[in-house]
Write a structure and sequence with these properties.
alpha+beta, Outer membrane efflux proteins (OEP), two-stranded parallel sheet, 6 strands, elongated
Length: 489
């Protein structure tokens, strides 16, 4: 067996067995409690519908809400940008994979030259027998090169590119989750504003009727001027709340149109008719805080960015070591007739063993390594902070949901009591025991509580959306974290 035959298997074994320099990545394991603090209170909620975490928006009992969320997930322009970023990261991964493989190129050229006999060189050549003033030259070459990744710098680059691609995938999922939650949140705010507008307009009618009665009594000398001015001020105050609520309604409609990838006003006609505020569904098993690391896409993206930074330390360390490459060219060249181009006499070949070593540049390499390590420490802290904030989001959302629902229940009780009080007042008015003014004042108190209940009901539904978002609901992966991480090895 020749030395060349022995050298090739040895070379491949060195490449396969060669270790990659730099630290191997170990996924951090933050210390988290076994259960969310607010989960016990969440289990005691009285909710009728159960929500699937992946499609939680369908459990609010509002077909229009579900339709808008699905439409936003197809047409939203933030998602289009996230998909484009994912495509860019995929291209970077393709380039990193290609760097590990040999590269080749094919080149060729043809030239035709004319030699003047008036020049000194032309005069000399023209004195030779058979001189042809026209000359043809042809050349065709096939070349190739391969950088031998003995110390693993290119493999670390591939690890970094793969982790970046995985982070972009998780980022797109996080954007999808955010789009679904924001669309639902805007829709719920819109329905809450419409409910409050209805209450405010009824308040205006009540205050106008009350003012009319007081004006009548004042004209007969039965009501003081102070009472009249107070009624006028109360009416102006209620009237002033209507434009603010109408502006909020218009802004919510416009925001919802933008979320759906449409021009403001595109869906105004179908949103103009008021509808009930969506009712928060039951939140199923939430899992442990540690499961957030495998379910929330923003945490997966943060962890994958950390893995990419760790691989870039290895890329920087690899610059300490020499880079070896193999190259070669096989081709044919002739300066005569084209029929001789691929004959044995016209063939040419070259082989090259390249070496590149930044032997006198270690100071700069040191700086690059320290930079990579600093970025890794920064991203590790960012990941740990993201985990803490994610658990904070969940706890806050659980607390807000439970407390807002308690507030809604209490206000509903108060509204029922004031409703009975208003009925009693009206019955007393019919018997002539009290004046109509007292009936209208009872109406005003009832409407104020109704407005507060509408606000609490809106905030409880929004808190439910926040809870689903904080739990990472709204996307599905076969094996979110493990599948992403396993592809890096």
């Amino acid at each position: 067996m020749s030395q060349r035959t022995l050298a090739l298997p040895l070379l491949f074994s060195l490449l396969l067995a060669g270790c990659a320099v730099g630290p191997d990545y170990v996924r951090p394991a933050p210390t988290l409690p076994d259960r969310f603090i607010g989960e016990a209170a969440l289990d005691r909620r009285a909710a009728t519908a159960n929500a699937e975490l992946v499609t939680w928006w369908t459990a609010f009992g509002d077909a229009q809400l579900a339709r808008y969320v699905e439409q936003a997930l197809k047409q939203n322009l933030d998602l289009a940008q996230a998909s484009a970023r994912m495509a860019q990261a995929r291209a970077g991964l393709g380039a990193a994979n290609a760097a590990l493989l040999p590269s080749g190129n094919l080149g060729g050229q043809a030239a035709r030259a004319y030699q003047s006999v008036e020049t000194p060189l032309g005069q000399v050549l023209n004195s030779q027998p058979g001189f042809d003033r026209y000359g043809n030259a042809y050349e065709a070459n096939l070349g190739g090169s391969w950088e031998l990744d003995i110390f693993g710098g290119l493999r670390r680059g591939r690890e970094a590119a793969l982790a970046d691609h995985q982070a972009s995938e998780a980022g797109a999922a996080a954007t999808r989750l955010g789009v679904a939650a924001q669309t639902a949140d805007i829709y719920i705010m819109l329905r809450g504003l419409q409910a409050r507008l209805d209450v405010a307009r009824r308040q205006v009618g009540t205050q106008q009727e009350l003012l009319s009665k007081i004006e009548l009594l004042h004209g007969k000398g039965l009501a003081a001027g102070l009472q009249l001015r107070q009624a006028e001020g109360a009416l102006a105050q209620v009237r002033a709340s209507v434009p603010v609520l109408e502006a909020g309604e218009a802004a919510a409609m416009n925001a919802l149109d933008v979320m759906l990838g449409a021009a403001p006003g595109a869906h105004r006609a179908e949103l103009a008719a008021a509808a009930a505020i969506p009712v928060p569904p039951r939140i199923g098993p939430t899992g442990s805080p540690a499961e957030l690391l495998r379910r929330r896409p923003d945490l997966i993206a943060a962890e994958r960015r950390l893995a990419a930074s760790n691989a870039r330390i290895g890329m920087a360390v690899a610059e300490y070591y020499p880079k070896l490459s193999l190259g070669g060219t096989v081709g044919s060249a002739t300066s005569v007739a084209s029929g001789n181009l691929f004959t044995g006499d016209a063939s040419q070949a070259a082989a090259l063993l390249g070496l590149r070593w930044r032997l006198f540049d270690f100071g700069r390499i040191d700086a690059q390594i320290e930079l990579a390590k600093g970025q890794d420490v920064e991203l590790l802290a960012a990941y740990r902070l993201a985990v803490l904030r994610a658990t904070e989001d969940v706890e806050n959302a659980f607390s807000a949901l439970v407390k807002r629902e308690e507030q809604t229940a209490l206000l509903a009780q108060g509204e029922a009591s004031l409703g009975r009080a208003r009925g009693d007042s009206f019955a007393a008015y019919q018997r002539g025991v009290v004046s109509l003014i007292e009936v209208l004042q009872a109406d005003e108190s009832l409407l104020r509580v109704a407005d507060a209940r509408a606000q609490a009901q809106t905030e409880s539904a929004r808190a439910a959306v926040g809870a689903f978002k904080s739990l990472g609901g709204g996307w599905q992966a076969d094996d979110p974290a493990e599948a992403m991480a396993s592809r890096s090895h």
